[in-house]
Amino acid sequence: MFYPGMRIKELRIKRGLSQENLAKKLGMNRVNISHYERGVITKIPSDVLAKLADIFGVSTDYLLGKTDDPSPSNNSDWDSKLPELTEKDEKDIAKDLQRIMDSLESQEGLMYDGEPMDEETKELIKISLENSMRLAKRIAKKKFTPKKYRK
């Protein structure tokens, strides 16, 4: 049976750290590290897992046994794998965004508790919609573009 403490112990020993040293880096008691490593505590708090992943230079998924790839996940990496938007895509997004904003304003959709929203709130909604539309367009391009046309 796998438990995260197995990987913690393995990584700690590889790095030449004692339980005491690791505990100091985490700001906790050595006994906690011992309990993690022996499987006495198998549910490690997420903030502790994140700190451990940083200390060891691995992903939290690796510590949890969800993957055998120890390389840390790079959240910005997924973004670089999506296709870029063309000028036509940008124009389509701008046109659709304007249509949505006009529709919301004409139907009193931009109200909260019967009161109209201020200009700053409207701008924040517009920015959020635009970012969502851009991401959706890029994901759709990746998903629906035939392989022979992908770069």
From TrEMBL:
A GO molecular-function annotation: DNA binding
PROSITE patterns per UniProt: HTH_CROC1
Alphabetically ordered keywords of this record: DNA-binding
Keyword Cell division set for record: no
UniProt feature, compositional bias: Basic and acidic residues: 78-89
Gene3D superfamilies from the UniProt entry: lambda repressor-like DNA-binding domains
Entry-linked SMART domains: HTH_XRE
Alphabetized InterPro entries for the sequence: Cro/C1-type_HTH, Lambda_DNA-bd_dom_sf
Ranges where the HTH cro/C1-type domain occurs: 8-63
Mitochondrion is among the record's keywords: no
Record region (Disordered): 66-89
PANTHER family for this protein: HTH-TYPE TRANSCRIPTIONAL REGULATOR XRE, TRACRIPTIONAL REGULATORY PROTEIN-RELATED-RELATED
Protein name: Transcriptional regulator, contains XRE-family HTH domain
Source species taxonomy: Bacteria, Bacillati, Bacillota, Bacilli, Bacillales
